[in-house]
Amino acid sequence: MAKGTAETSTTCPYCGVGCGVTVTMTDEQVEPVCGTTSHPANFGNLCVKGSALHETLDHTDRLLYPTIKGQRTSWDTALNLIADKITQVISTHGPEAVAFYGAGQMLTEDYYAANKLMKGFIGSANMDTNSRLCMASAAASYKRSLGSDTVPGCYDDLELADLLVLVGSNAAWAHPILFQRMVAAKKNNPDLKVVVIDPRRTATCDLADLHLAIRPGTDTTLFNALLAYLDETGALDLAFIEDHTEQFAETLEAASQAVDGFEALAEITDTDLDDLQTFFEWFRDTDRTVTFYSQGVNQSKDGTDKANSIINLHLATGRIGKPGACPLSITGQPNAMGGREVGGLANQLAAHMDFDQADRVRRFWNAPAVATHAGLKAVDLFDEVKAGKIKFLWIMSTNPLVSMPDANDVKEALSHCELVVVSDCMANTDTTAMAHVLLPAAGWGEKNGTVTNSERRISRQRGFLPSPGEAMPDWWIISQVGQRMGYEDAFSWEHPAQIFDEHARLSAFENDGKRDFDLSGLVGMSRDEYDAMPPVQWPVNAQWPRGRKRFFDDGHFYTRNGRARFIAVKAELPPQIQPGHLLMNTGRIRDHWHTMTRTAKSARLAQHIAEPYADFHPDDARTYGIRDGGLVRLFNERGAIVVRAHVASDGRQRQGEIFVPMHWTDRYASLARMGTLINKDNDPISGQPALKRAQVQAEPFNVSWKGFVLSRDDLGPLGSDYWVYNRTSTCHMYETSGNSDPAAFATTLAASWPEHEVLRFSDPKNGHVRVAHIRDGRLESVIFLHPSADLSARSWLQERFDDEQLEFADRLALLAGRPLGAGADKGKIICSCFQVGEKTILEAIHNGCESADALGAALKCGTNCGSCIPELKGLVGKALSKA
Ligand SMILES: Nc1nc2c(c(=O)[nH]1)N[C@H]1C(S)=C(S)[C@@H](COP(=O)(O)OP(=O)(O)OC[C@H]3O[C@@H](n4cnc5c(=O)[nH]c(N)nc54)[C@H](O)[C@@H]3O)O[C@H]1N2
Ligand SMILES: Nc1nc2c(c(=O)[nH]1)N[C@H]1C(S)=C(S)[C@@H](COP(=O)(O)OP(=O)(O)OC[C@H]3O[C@@H](n4cnc5c(=O)[nH]c(N)nc54)[C@H](O)[C@@H]3O)O[C@H]1N2
Ligand code: SF4
Ligand SMILES: [Mo]
Fold first, then answer.
1. Angle at the Cα of 317 (from 312 to 322), degrees rounded to 5?
2. Neighbours of ion ligand 4 (CB under 5 A)
């Protein structure tokens, strides 16, 4: 290592794959991060979000100091205010009037502290988390069936399987490193078949031998029919059913009533009969089957049943806990699993214990008021806030004004609460705007602790940077409040290692093999041992000192009688779509993370998809008069958004349905919080909202001009009818459109620019405006507006923000937007890692690079993280079919 260089191994803060990341600091500079070769989740690979981590660490927009009603204050004042308010609310209204709302992005130690304070010392279980929106149904289904919230398998199973069934998962974009492992597995094992079950044809389908583009919500019917088919064709593992399970007969009976034959099934699921038959045969004939599922399953009104219908299939065939055979629900957030372990959800207590074990937890914590019954789940929790019953609400590490269903109602709810506290790293999220007290949290790279990934693997997050301003780790903030409420002993930790130790001891407390979650083997680690702790899959105990890959291979389950339970699930038909409405499906894109507070900082990530959009089937676009690339207004009785319309002429979108990404907020777009359109329907068992479903109407959003604004400074909300904010590597960039007079809009934006610093081109008759602001020879801003011209080429203008002094020729060219002479534009960036644009790629295809590999060899695109390979293949396919 070079002089002044330090290396830290830590874990990626994004998705539940939980990749190891190695960070090198050279003279206090963070070098581009790499994957940790020895980490068993990723073996050195990183996806595009992971590899852009170092680009998100600057302090722009960071929340630096505690504030009360917008005024800076000291930690002491803020913490005392919170402790006093909680104490007062408890004494006047009881503990049920206090609530916490956390996230699967808190570290286990943070989460443990918050859960202990609420469920042990405040005395209610009103601590819920955004995991309610994410994997509550998966957790509920495991508990119903296996007796515990235990993920049976591991990532290696993906490589050992002969059949991978991906249900409601767009792993290519949402779990890219696991997707790459699947891609590699298929290369190594030509017999491996991949089936994708998703109403949309996503990038994940690139790997599919079979894609079932089912009618949304018909999964349970499909899996019930499959169970009946397995029975009819003699494919059940009768010995396993007999020895290790119960309730099979009634479950099969219910499943058999699902549909009558393939034709009926094809009709209900709106899929091809032959495809269904193929899928059923493959499932019947393949012992090594992994069913990998995510939000298309969980975020449904019947999410728990859907998940159980999958688990039923695996129990019926004995395909659980065996190499290459298991149901594998995949978690989204880096520490969704850790949240489940500490009891972050309102219906759990701690360390996989339920409220019937409250006494055990009380004795361990020596706590005065351990909650004895479940608290409010997210949707109900915010309803109670709105009803004025919750007087104190503390939101940590999540942005519910964007991510909750009926997001405008959540906004209104917060305005009814006596005290809203928000802990976040960022100052200006949609949710921080509603807080009375803001607490600056230390972010990734600044804090220490652990996270657990989708295969139960606990990994260390290690800090390598100081926190800016007065930001502090969440566990510290929470324990300070605990101390100030009078519980000095219970919250006296000085380091997360002590919290982890307590967490491990609680998991071991009076366990004796009765509970799946057991970290007894990690009790009593020294600080050094904690710091050096390698990634390990729980449980870690005397029987499994190095962790356990798979559960249930021994046929033992954590139900009272040790048998797994089949769950009879009745498939409900999806609701009728009202005439004139479209079914809105929502989800993720490749390069943004949730509400974008971190990924929007990386210019590279912003390029892949720069605007909020809706994918339309061409027939629907025609019906509603929507043009590809035009703006569309989506609305219903709850809200409205305006996004870019993409007309999917490649068959990726089913008719009558649209897809809208979840990411854009009021910070990044004029009107794009799609959560405002979704109602509060949720699963009766898990309480997980049906976030994949809303009925909306669509109409063109007509504008008379469009254009862009580039600026050295962040201009905040732009004030035009439509705008979207993006960072570029040199400046801030707004896409904008409007109906008002474009010249007047430009004049308002330029109001503060001294006239002698302004270059102007204006053709008011044609609505054509170009303005540039140059100060001391440096470019400060440009505004380009036009009713119709294609203003997409702008990379040259962006580069000018890097010039200390504009060249004379460039000044002349400024309002042309391109250098005098030619200057090629790369087009839309497809490969973020190597900044390879669509135009460059199409040109290379034209010149004979007719596969993703050939493109990689010529342009390097797709050769680092590989996330863009499906798109490269798509471009090749499209170009070749055109030719
Ligand atoms: N790039 C990126 N990656 C992420 C995240 C991110 O924000 N950005 N977030 C992380 C988090 S927290 C999560 S939870 C995961 C989510 O990961 P995924 O669940 O894979 O992602 P989504 O895009 O939410 O939804 C997956 C698919 O469900 C499909 N679907 C909708 N309705 C149905 C249905 O009725 N049946 C079936 N079978 N499918 C349906 C959708 O069309 C969609 O393609 O991603 C994680 N990874
Ligand atoms: N319609 C629709 N809605 C959805 C979904 C969907 O598919 N469709 N998906 C749902 C799912 S699965 C999820 S997981 C949620 C995600 O939704 P959210 O949790 O609301 O989204 P994030 O942007 O991840 O919010 C995390 C916040 O925590 C802050 N933060 C980051 N690190 C820290 C830290 O260490 N400490 C503290 N205190 N703050 C920190 C970030 O700046 C950010 O403001 O959205 C849900 N909502
Ligand atoms: S797949 Fe990408 S986002 Fe997910 S943990 Fe790995 S590097 Fe991070
Ligand atoms: Mo999630």
1. 100
2. 134, 332
